[in-house]
Amino acid sequence: MDRLLVLVRHGQSEWNLKNLFTGWKDPGLTEKGIEEARKGGRLLKEAGLGFDLTYTSALTRAQKTLDLILEELGVPLTGEGSLPRQQDLALNERDYGDLSGLNKDDARQKWGEEQVHIWRRSYDTAPPGGESLKDTGARVWPYYMTHILPDVMNGKRVLVSAHGNSLRALIMVLDRLTPDAVTKLELATGVPLVYRLNADTTVAEKVILQ
Is residue 135 part of an annotated ligand binding site? Predict the structure, then answer.
């Protein structure tokens, strides 16, 4: 039994490029983001990895990244041979609230470098109207435990295309990271993280494809 779980952060979005807080806003991928997603798919193919089902968020950039990866793997998106897809806002990016759509440099001018840094990098301090990383985890973790993990433990090969902070929350559980450690974790766009789990749900192996 393989117990394969692959996590991929979406490729660069238009708002990543413009240095804007994105959160639950829904910009598309840049040309670079499209190529990052395709490269992730090629790396998975070169590693000989295939999948039985997929998970993604309710946001376009994660869904498009998944589509591009599947295309590179030679998997049709619809019809015969396509894979089951679960889309859920539980896997959405962290909601940045009042910061959403603002340039990060402008936000620093408005609220100060230190305050914006706290909002961005602390574990449990949320920006006005938004979520902290802990809040994001509070919706990601139950979804993982009740949907994704049972599929993996039943021997399904699972691919998840999501976001920097929703994946940080997942990796916090998988890698057993402390709140301090997870805030320092950086995830590159379009880079697959390949996990294989033991029978007790702990991590047997982790490989980063790049």
Answer: no
